[in-house]
Amino acid sequence: MTSRRSLLLVMTAAFALALALGAAYFLMRDDPSGYASQDLDGRTVEWDRRPDAEGSAVRETGERFEVASVDLSVPLLSAVVANGEINPPTLTDAFWYRETAELGGPGTSVIALHAVRGGRGPGNALVDVEGANPALRVHPGDLLDAGSVRYQVTGTMIASKQETAADPRIWGESDHDALAVITCVPTDDRNAVIFATAVGNTE
């Protein structure tokens, strides 16, 4: 993939939804629409597939998503799954998906964001996509702030989109106030996932 193309994050909103539709994941087709937007450095990046910004029903939250250990701080918006796909509609923000648990509430909340090869999306702070072997920059014990809720990282993984879409730690029931942060790995069609548990408030 060239430096002007962003590989899109693909997974279902919930494992139950995937089962209901008879598939564990959706593969996105190339969409030669010429759609482009700016990354965090103001660089123009052409997308592989146009995001459905209207269908995502994006809402402002007035909050931020922050990971101090990697110097990441971006607006935290909320969205819904559009057309059975999670495809955050910007390269500059983090998105909490409203079909998942409330942030800080019982169950697992899901936040998704994009990484860009040759550019800088918010996901680039979380995973190294420029080297030969993609690797997470965030590690167990690190703290994440999603709005007013503080989480501590408990684990990470890099997995195929099929595995991500079917992982019960993300889409299944949880007795914990948990968080899964998902970003794409644009070099090899996988996802990077960070698992965390709520440990208190940011104030």
From TrEMBL:
Signal peptide: none annotated. The keyword Hydrolase applies. CDD domains: Sortase_F. Pfam families: Sortase (PF04203). Keywords: Hydrolase. The keyword rRNA-binding does not apply. It comes from the Bacteria. This is Class F sortase. It comes from Aeromicrobium tamlense.
